[in-house]
Amino acid sequence: MKNLLHHPLQQINEAFQLPGMAALAIHNGEITVREEFGYRDLTAKLPFTTDTLCLVASATKSFTAGLTGRLVDRGLVEWTRPVRHYLPNFKMVDQFATREITLEDMLCHRSGLPWHENLLAHGVGRECSDDGRAFRADLLRRLAYFEPSSPFRANFVYQDVVFTCAGAILEHITNEPYETLIDQQLLQPLNLRDSTFERSKARATGRLAQPFGLIDGSVGPIPFCDTRYFAPSAGLYSTATEMIEWVKLQLNRGRHHDRQLISKAGMAWIHRPHVVAPNAAAMFGGGLTTYGQGWFQNALHGRTLIAHGGSFNGYRTFMGFVPEENIGAVVLTNLNVTEGVSAAGLLILDHLLGIENTVDERIAHFQQRAQWFATWEEQQKEAFMAGQNPANRPRHALEAYQGEYTHPGYGTFSITYDGSTLQQTYDGRTFPLNLYNGETFGSRFQTTENRVLPMTFTFESSGPVTAVRVPIIEDIPIPRFVRD
């Protein structure tokens, strides 16, 4: 099987410019595919192997679902009991959601809140001073101020903030840090000794991959991100060797050797569909896609594929399995956003199902998907540039815009003036405010892609500036930050 896969996987590795890649697959509990390509560090030419540590990003969600299953088995929580039973003061903007939202809802992305990607970069380029538990508890409070983009339980909207809050709820119920719960309930029983939420521990192994991104079309290193603040959603570092053990537990319906870690009923609940996810179908090549608890479901050559990916800050993960055939695969790479791991993971599963010569089809589909995203981003930039008119000057002198502008959910923008340029600081990062069009200034934001950001100041009649509107989150009315 290795000889059949090595060349097509190499084609994928080259087609998507992956710095390094490792792939493992199992059939009936035995490793049947092991492939390694490229480097975890391009400068030092250190090889990328199945024991190279990467941030597995959103693949962490399946661990949060598994932890919840363990706690359900112990009678500490219930999937369908409203969160308010555990947190009486819990609140969301939607009153129906406030009363009724459950861990099931939170773990299948049907809260009604939009994607809050801009808040995920809290740890970009810096080590966090704590384990993030206080941040997660405060995030639960801030949900009361996050506007929904769709009605509660009406749609699947992929959501990292709410998933993180599910972990915070488990912390509240057990009075234990999320990382400790995962370690004690899952990592230790599975003997996953490399897997950790602490970047410092991953780095201390000497096997942590350098994260890379595509910068102006070329592969280059990007800043690391301490993800402990969002650990339940995207914070785990692991290896292909250890992630395949996690896939094996899924195929064994929660059983590890002679121990039932998660009940069969719990695993069935986690793996079954809970909501239709139509906008996720392209990740698997098309077809009806649903979402369970931390896992997607799709069809692969007439069988059920259960899978999840991860993409954040220079790392990308694919893991998937087909229960009917007792096969599974894991692919890791150290390149941001790339579709290469999905192409590689599905190619491996194609071969394990006896479907040959699909590499060109897989590459074409995922290159087309990558091109769609690139085109969309270019359109966003063009739309931003089209609205620019620096000749339309702001009504006030620049120093009049200085101040602290606060939103109860999204925090504070601090605007300062150095005598020539306005600067905005948010979440500890500072960027210049450039003249854009009248009362709207152009700036940057600490998103993982650091996109342009229009900031529009408002005032009453000819009086002082009173607020600034910042589209920090898409698909909702633009949040208003009020001047203190």
Topology:
Blueprint: H1 2-15, E1 20-27, E2 30-41, E3 46-47, E4 54-55, H2 60-73, H3 95-100, H4 103-107, H5 133-142, H6 160-174, H7 178-187, H8 199-204, E5 212-215, E6 218-221, H9 231-234, E7 237-238, H10 240-251, E8 255-256, E9 259-260, H11 264-271, E10 275-276, E11 290-291, E12 296-300, E13 303-312, E14 315-322, E15 327-333, H12 340-352, H13 359-386, E16 403-407, E17 411-417, E18 422-426, E19 429-437, E20 440-444, E21 452-459, E22 465-469, E23 480-483
Antiparallel strand pairs: 1-2, 1-15, 2-3, 4-7, 5-6, 8-9, 10-11, 11-12, 12-13, 13-14, 14-15, 16-17, 16-23, 17-18, 18-19, 19-20, 20-21, 21-22, 22-23
Give a written overview of the molecule.
The protein has 484 residues and is α+β, with helices and mostly antiparallel strands. It has two domains: 2-378, Beta-lactamase (3-Layer(aba) Sandwich); 398-483, Lipocalin. It has helices spanning 2-15, 60-73, 95-100, 103-107, 133-142, 160-174, 178-187, 199-204, 231-234, 240-251, 264-271, 340-352, 359-386; strands at 20-27, 30-41, 46-47, 54-55, 212-215, 218-221, 237-238, 255-256, 259-260, 275-276, 290-291, 296-300, 303-312, 315-322, 327-333, 403-407, 411-417, 422-426, 429-437, 440-444, 452-459, 465-469, 480-483. The strands form five sheets. A nine-stranded antiparallel β-sheet has the order 3-2-1-15-14-13-12-11-10, with helices on both faces. Strand 11 (290-291) and strand 12 form a beta hairpin. Helix 2 (60-73) packs across helix 7, helix 5 crosses helix 6 (160-174) and helix 12 (340-352) runs antiparallel to helix 13. The longest helix is centred in the last third of the chain and has 28 residues, at 359-386. The mean pLDDT is 93.
